[in-house]
Amino acid sequence: MWKKLWIVSTAVGALETAKAAYTPVIHSRQTSNTSTISWAACPDDNSTQCAFFDVPMDYTSPNSTSTVSIFLRKYSATAPVEQQLGSILVNPGGPGGSGSAAVAVLGPRLSTMVDGRYDIIGAVNLTGPPTACHDTEYKQGAPFPHVGGAAETAHVAKLSAIQSSHRAACIENGNYEMLRNSGTVAVVKDMERIVEALGEDGLNYLGYSYGTILGATFAAMRPNLVKRMVLDGVSDAEAYFDGVLEWGRKGIQETPKTLAGFISTCIDAGPTQCALASTKDNKTETVEGLAKRLDVLYTKLGKEPLVVGDSLTGPGIIEAQHVQTIIFSMMYNPRFWSMLTQGLAVLEQGDGRDVYAVINSLVYGAVPEPYNQNVFNRSMQKIDGVSREAMYPVMCGDSPRLNITVEEYADYFREMGKISPMGEQWALLMGGCREWPFRAAETYTGPWTVEKGLNKTRFPILFVSLDADPVTPLASAVKMSRGFGSESGSLLIQQGFGHPSYAHPSLCTIKHVGDYFVNGTVPKNGTHCTPEPGFIYPTNNTQSKRSMLSERDKGLLEAVEEIGRTDSPKRSGAYGEAYGAPKRFRTPAVLVEQPLVVGDSPTGPGIIQAHNVQYMIFALMYFPNTWSALAQALLNLEQGNGQDYYPLLVNGILYGTLPKPYTQNVFNRSMQVYPSNTRESQYPIMCGDSPQLNITIKGYADYFREMGELGPMGEQIALIIGACRGWSFRATERYTGPWTVEKGLNKTRFPILIVNLDADPVTPLPAAVKMS
């Protein structure tokens, strides 16, 4: 699964390439009977072993007796015992990415890379107490993407309020001690305890993306324990601890380069392999032409979203930000670029059926992880494969408190959007830390360079970086390797696109990593590798060349490709902050400016906006017997308490998918109700009976404003009426009159009794008077 880790860079300078390879130092495995960890076959996968290992909850409080139970999973070494070299701890990224899942799914492949000489160990998932802020999983709801134009402050204000709901839930329900003791420094100390419990004399470590921050922090704090350490997809650890906004800025500096690679490789592959490589008149496309087409697609969908009538996951719309999310996600793994071009090609033609299903998975989807990737099933919602429950306590807790106004947040969106078309998606993730209230008990503030006091590591670290990584640019790897100095680090640079190096496989890189772990051979600083040809757009020639490889090389290449294949695109979402709603008088007008944050409710966290209150009032105008309860609800909302009303206001009335009782919904045609009629039965009649409603978006917006001026609830009626916009099915027969005796209406056989209240919210007395 892709681990999009929030990454930073610095300017790329000239690389030190003169240093010779380090002299190999081989450390034999210590006897296993020194281990104090009790392993047993994992209940979900008996090819791996599992264990729990207790460590202190708070390392800053020596007298505390509270502990954390870390869940460990091991894929055992396959080499003969006398050839085994110990254990490698693996961190796939995140923060919060599951090393346990990585071992369960990829243990055999990782073992292949090191000739089966090491046990492969990962953690996270069963570790407890949990960092979850919800007592039941379903309360989390679906991830909230930002909607509308990020350049518009009003949209960012709404997003910020939505993100606040998770922070409020953590304040109300979270385990305070766990939330403040989940930072990187605490994990470094956990790793030290694990190494000691394994009975080994130092740490062997493989870290990707955020895992490079964890590894670098360990090396800075415990340099004497570094036996072997490979950091792949290198993030700027110093910038990470200094603040997430600057970290975010630097992290996407090479996203445009990766996107340019996506475009150029498509043109090079040609129309037979890339669906975007030809123009509408079947001429060969150019790099400039394809870049312009993507800009046109963004602009078009930004002005008017593409309507999808049906798809594998139902109807919906595709907006510009959805396309940006898909493209950004797939920049991580060029394996999917051919598929991406096919999706963009049909979107250009106005067909979003197949793409919308992908959008539902990436942006909105709530798809449970396989059991071995989510043992406790703590959170189905993932942010790029990482539960927000695990990510924010680490990422936000490690950095200084992010106190920025909504206006400053909007400015950050605009700034990031200028760096890259996908920059707004990155800003969305960084903003999840806005006013996160839990600071890590300990953070590492340096030094990060030898010149400032960083100590030499026991064995040199191997830094690995692609030269076109969308979120951990080469400049970050250059900075980190230089900071540790020539005696403590060496940088291997691989040509290629994606994140990290396994995204664009190279036998050269794989072999260097394997030799480093197995033989202690450190590549010369500045060593360059190239990816295997034909990986992005395979040809018959690609297969022919592969057939000529040795069996060992085939096995290595297949292992790394399998890792990349498993690291598939993930959805993006955003949650993140809020102390809860201020206790002050609220009216719908106030809620327009600042929605009410609900940290927890029977159906999960969220926000209550002005239109939610308007709709509740409008719906209950039908039933005076509910007005006493309505008055009490409004009083509570005025006081900033939305917990009891969110299920009704939002999940029930507005978004609810609650099945009707059998007697009310015999065919179970649609669970969606507005508020009691299914759209499946309402629209064919209401819209089919009326003339075609052909109005522009501007005309529709004018109608909303006009209806809003007639009454506070007018916009809700406009919403229902506007559903007929563009409805293409006219009723076979419609009655067009006459409607009065004077115009020819005939006398009925028996008089009609017309009954009407004199204060009906939707069928006013004048209508009854007119009809009678």
From TrEMBL:
Residues 1-20 form the signal peptide. Residues 422-529 form the Peptidase S33 tripeptidyl aminopeptidase-like C-terminal domain. Keywords: Hydrolase, Signal. Residues 164-234 form the AB hydrolase-1 domain. InterPro entries: AB_hydrolase_1 (IPR000073), AB_hydrolase_fold (IPR029058), Pept_S33_TAP-like_C (IPR013595), Serine_prot/Carboxylest_S33 (IPR051601). Belongs to the peptidase S33 family. This is Hydrolase Mb2248c.
